[in-house]
């Protein structure tokens, strides 16, 4: 069968089977058409029905998570773990606690994670999990009871060499601590079952910074190719969580001026450059809303209920670091008008497919999340290595390795795109390179 027809058939079938799973189908629709050129050159993979097999998650777990709130009422949430692909290593990927979590969101994230993890060059398969539990507004005790209940079920399905969860939106050091503590009580086994652990017990230096720093390193290497740098660049960032904070910190350190950041209520524009230390204090320490920023910074403006992507201001680089589908077609047009030349995704799938099309047409260099935000999971894999050898490496060592990994991911995306006559198409480059490694592993293991 022709590669084109094969891809179309797979796409049609997945749309029929998973109707209504909007985010998941979006991720699949972004991926499938880009690997057609590879399959054309490698018909053996078409013959072995690689896509038909790969597209089916190896295992999906859904479970009930009952927990008691501070008033003594029983609450219940849904828990998930999607173990999508283990061809190149144990399932690896974060846990997301957010009310928007559903099966479609879990599957899109796990699907992207397969190729992201493959691109890191480290032996990690793709998985993702989480719950529709909302940690916002909950007491520490409620979060603890929820995490303990969640882990009571999850522990049956994970392990240091089978499936290694970590953090994502709504899951930071506090949650990982509670989850890890419960795993240890239930299994009497330690260390490498979760990553993103606090530094005092088995955590890795630079893991907190890794996703944000990594995203900026990716762009740094891209700029370097253009004989350019972050110096003097104006950067617009969305979000104010873990990814956003460290993307802002590194961009500033490299000489850029960061103009904005946001949370789900609104955004801050600070013409003097965002005060990252203050954002850290507000968000990481006090769990406050970003609107508080303007109380101490009178030059800054808070735009309540508005998206940073509707804002008209001149800039060079956009780093969407909030969540999926935060930039739509219209907002991509605004981004182009604002002068944006590079978009690098700190979040997973923050641009809709229509938005990406607008960026492509305008010649904006678009760096998809599965490449640009792979630094977090890459350092997670380094945390696994450190846990295995019962050692911890210095910040400088891990940060240096992260920079090297991001350089390698950038070059792989660039070179793969060039190889298929699609210069600057980093989506195609990331998808084919990530896919090829997994596909070859599946073939050699007799899985297709
Ligand atoms: N949640 C992060 C991601 O989207 C990191 C996952 C991990 O460290 O395992 O890649």
From TrEMBL:
Annotated PROSITE patterns: GLFV_DEHYDROGENASE
**What Gene3D superfamilies does this protein map onto?**
Glutamate Dehydrogenase, chain A, domain 3, Leucine Dehydrogenase, chain A, domain 1, NAD(P)-binding Rossmann-like Domain
Signal peptide positions (record): none
UniProt xrefs under Pfam families: ELFV_dehydrog, ELFV_dehydrog_N
Q: Which domain of life is it from?
A: Bacteria
The chain positions of domain Glutamate/phenylalanine/leucine/valine/L-tryptophan dehydrogenase C-terminal read 204-446
CDD domains in the cross-refs: NAD_bind_2_Glu_DH (cd05313)
A GO molecular function term, named singly, is: glutamate dehydrogenase (NADP+) activity
Q: Keywords on this record?
A: Oxidoreductase
- InterPro entries associated with the record: Aminoacid_DH-like_N_sf, Glu/Leu/Phe/Val/Trp_DH, Glu/Leu/Phe/Val/Trp_DH_C, Glu/Leu/Phe/Val/Trp_DH_dimer, Glu/Leu/Phe/Val_DH_AS, Glu_DH, Glu_Leu_Phe_Val_DH, NAD(P)-bd_dom_sf
Q: Which family does it belong to?
A: Belongs to the Glu/Leu/Phe/Val dehydrogenases family.
- Quaternary structure note: Homohexamer.
Official protein name in the record: Glutamate dehydrogenase
